[in-house]
Amino acid sequence: MGLTLIEKILANHSGKTVVKPGEIIDILIDVRIARDFGGANVVKNLINNGLDIDDVTKTFFTFDCNPTGSDQKYAANQQYCRLYAREKGLKVYDIDSGIGTHLVIDKGLAYPGCTVVSTDSHANILGAIGAFGQGMGDRDIAAAWANGKSWFKVPKSIKLNLIGERAADIYAKDIVLNLLNKFGANQLLGYSVEIYGEEAEKMTLDERITISSMATEMGAIIVLFPPNDEIIKYAEARTKRKIEKVLADPDAVYEKEIDIELDKFVPMMSKPGHPDDSVNIDELRGTKIDSAFIGSCTNGRYEDMKLVAEILKNRKVAPGVVLKIVPSTDEIWQQLLTEGIIKIFKDAGALVSNAGCAGCAAGQVGQNGPDEITVSTGNRNFAGKQGKGKVFLGSPAEVAASAVAGYITTPDQIPAEPAQFSTTGKFTDQVNVKETTEDKPTVIEGKVWIISKDDIDTDMIFHNRYLTITDINEMGQYAFDNLEGWEDFARKAEKGDIIITDKNFGAGSSRQQAVDCFKALGVQAIIAKSFGAIYERNAINAGFPVLTYDDLSELNLKQRSKIRVNFESGEITNLAENISIKINPFFDVQMEIYQKNGLLN
Fold it and tell me: What is the gyration radius of the CA atoms in the chain, in angstroms?
């Protein structure tokens, strides 16, 4: 039997001719990146464990979350990393460069068939060129920097066949939002997804990047496009060497093969809160907006910007609406400048920032205020992700058209006169009100917190406003403070507690703090139906127990029941009722790391 594309790449990097789903292997990492918010923790992990760099020619910093250094903690972390880089001879793509996952493609560091890891949870963007990219936590990246390798579980593969032709008004962002509408946030959880079909074959690099960049939002390990001749040609020009195509074998075995009727796709937008809550844009048309953002690793490429310029040319942003535009790399920014596109943006009334993550990271130009309605080309719109307002996700064309109209619309329905804001009376007869704020055990016992909710993302667990915290002792107080109904969890939790929750716990970002905050509180373990792929790795590598189950109903658990959990056998017991069942035990690598008290120990 042949290999899928992901299996072929992983086999090529593990010294094996064949790898199978579920197999744990060590793979060579070709490109190893740390960003500005994770970089300081990576360096601290290396220093605290007496580790050095395996290969400085494959190891890089990319400062893209806050490329203005406007936040003091970001600025401190960036400078800390610069000093380390100077001492070790590492290349820094500093605040004038752009988004790291794009830079590795455009600078020729990454190429079809290679492997890349980053502290960016959207490192799976590399699937756009048929390469393996993965976001990882601070310990993982430190280990990759020190060893040049990382352990990985070979994922199962799904083959998506795009059938038929897409309509002229269906952009790459519409395609991925239609896929999110179909599969949700966890139906593809843990899978490697390969995309085929005539329309997929014709897609440009920029379009492929848009779709691959949202693999994380679908719960997938990666969305891979087999590289066509144009992608190979691009990679060869950037790497300045011959690139061999790495493709799935004709007799590759997939867990599922799904046909998708592309000709039935419609223009889509995601409603605030969840990227997978995507609907036909007609359901949202006419919604008044306050602001718009165009950029991010999903839609900050040259083709995106050129399309936006075609819509904005000889037009103005609607009165009172703020439009922020951020190209993904400085190379693209310079091209836009040379071609006069920056002038089109400025003439239309947009704020144009230097290259970087911008709105998605909320650290550059992208935050919105309470009650603010924003349309964005980003990949995430979790509560609090881009500020205190509400964020709709759409394509660059839809966002640009909406910015001109003053309400959600499409390029074919931009009005002759934009919408105007009306007074709300909110500030009439104001009353000023003063606000007030108030050797490790393999069997454990503890009281449970039952949180019956799917897709608890890392912004709900540990919000991005605390990402600059590097002291684990400070992290516990912020656990779940952005999860509705559980904001006081850190105050109620007791040392030795065990959390039980549902599907896809830890979806979203690669932040290590979303694991470490529970360690700081003394939580003993988290038991879930499934975990976000990066979150599960982070927990295992931190030596923090995470286990999965299929059904716990027979245990008759209540809030604060006391249970016993055996990590080796998977036996879990309701101690009050003496009922026991089996769940999934630790696998060997997990037990080894747990007993070492973490990957780096």
Answer: 24
Residue with tokens 């400048």: 337
Q: pLDDT of 389-432, one tens digit each? A: 999 999 999 999 999 999 999 999 999 999 999 887 776 765 55
Please tell me the distance from the alpha carbon of residue 36 to that of residue 66, in angstroms, as a whole number: 7
579-582 β-sheet, strand order: 546-548, 525-528, 498-501, 443-451, 562-566, 571-574, 579-582
Q: DSSP secondary structure string, 17-69?
A: S---TT-EEEEE-SEEEEEHHHHHHHHHHHHHTT---S-GGGEEEE--SSTT-
Which among 350, 346, 302, 355 is positioned nearest to 326, based on CA atoms?
355
- Which residue is associated with the tokens 């503890």? 446
pLDDT digits (tens, 9 = 90+) for 504-550: 999 998 999 999 999 999 999 999 999 999 999 999 999 999 999 99
Separation of first and last alpha carbons in the chain: 39
- 329: DSSP letter: B
Cα dihedral 419, 420, 421, 422 sign? negative
Structure letter (DSSP) for residue 417: S
Domains in the chain, CATH or no CATH each: 5-264 (3.30.499.10), 268-413 (3.30.499.10), 443-595 (3.20.19.10)
Nearest CA-CA partner of 183 in 274, 122, 70: 274
| Cβ pair 166, 263 in contact under 8 A | yes
| Residue pointed to by tokens 């997938």 | 220
- Relative to beta strand 256-261, strand 157-163 is parallel
pLDDT value, residue 436? 41
Strand partners, 269: 279
pLDDT at residue 438, rounded to an integer: 42
Alpha helices in 49-204 (DSSP H): 72-88, 100-106, 138-147, 172-183, 198-202
3-state SS string over 493-529?
A: CCCCCEEEECCCECECCCCCHHHHHHHHHCCCEEEEC
Question: How buried is residue 1: exposed, middle or buried, by Cβ count under 10 Å (0-12/13-18/19+)?
Answer: exposed
- pTM here? 0.84
DSSP H or E stretch at residue 346: helix 341-348
